[in-house]
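Notes from hallway chat w/ T.B., transcribed later so I don't forget. T.B. wanted the structure written out for a chain they're using in a teaching module, and asked if we could keep both sequence and structure tokens in one place. Agreed to drop them here.
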Amino acid sequence: MNIILGKRINRRFALRGLTCAIGLPLLDGMTPARAGVSVKKAPTRVAFVYVPNGMIMPKWTPIGEGPAFELSPTLSPLVGFKNDITVVGGLRQRLGEEMADGPGDHARAAGNYLTCARPLRSASRAEVGISVDQRLVESLGAQTRLASLELTCDSGQVAGECDSGYNCAYQAALSWRSARVPQPAEVSPRMVFDRIFSDGRRSLAAERKRWRARRSILDFAMEDTKRLWPTLSRADQSKMDEYLSSVRAIEQQIVRSENNPAPNRPTGLQVPSAHPHDYSEHIELMAELIVLAFRVDATRIVSWQWGREAGGRTFPEQGGYEGHHGLSHHQNDPEKIAILARIDEFHVQCLARMLEKLRNASEGDGNLLDSSMITFGSGLSDGNRHRHHDLPTLVAGRGNGTIASGRHLVAPKDTPMSNLWLSLMHGMGATDKSFGDSTGPLLSLKTV
């Protein structure tokens, strides 16, 4: 592929080496000058982040509405991002509720979250509906090398019965390619890294050999790097130097995380298998990889499950030696509620670190957070009573000006969650008139 198109750098040029293709961040030299003014329009991205088992809603819900709202205790780690977030109240997932099917709220909460469709109650097969991320893939996925990324920090059973007669697929997958085909989520940061930089000719044996030899992927693209460098301005050389350093830093972090032994834990505690062993580090690595994928425009669509519904992950640093699901059925025990509130705040702290990475990644005349829409929430509000209304929901970023951020937006009571998803689809450039059980886009998302 040519480096130069006319007098600008080809946006799709990649540093190529054996089995790899290292995409480039948006550089000044990629943008043609128009009437002496640099035009630096970044693409819009979306990421759907999911946490399980609901929230302690009195600690989550902000005080006041509109731009003058006050952050709640759970949202306090976002104090530096108050003007970059929109906390949305009043949303409901009606099709996740009990109705005539009885128990199974955790399966329905996860299966319904991005699909806004009714999960079929069957242990032998799963059927729900296409998810919002895959609907976006249908219309926009061809714009990037990877149509989408599906990530998880919690691996486990993907078939059979997991919750009151419901197939395990609902809790294992947020993303659904069609009503009956879930998109498998990747739990390994190393595999995500390789997906971002693979050029389609990757040999698994060759990649394993490279990792064992502690060879950086940058070593294999040295010739293209040398060829590109003289074409860059000093500003773009500085951006490239910072970007390539971040790629190498992520490689080193992946290796360190895999070499760290699993932490000791008290006898009898069940901790889901994950990579790496430390949950906080796992989230941190995946966040780094999402920023990297957005930065090189490898994909613009991500779904990311931090934990599966009814999961037994423990949070000893927050005092949660009992599994998260068990704690969520707190029966109004003040001690358990306090532990759950600390777990909720820990998750928001992890989100804040992700947002910091996005804001620190400059792009064109802004940064990645300006051009992104990062949703964060759960398919249940009150995990103790399995409530599917007034769901904890937050959108970070401005989506290239399609979101009026910096406020607590309270939608009319029981507004379908699908209305929010439809608005984000429009922010991405899709033209769908409906999604799931939507009644129309959440128009107030764009206006103060």
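Follow-up for T.B.: The longest strand covers residues 407-416. Might be a good example for the class.
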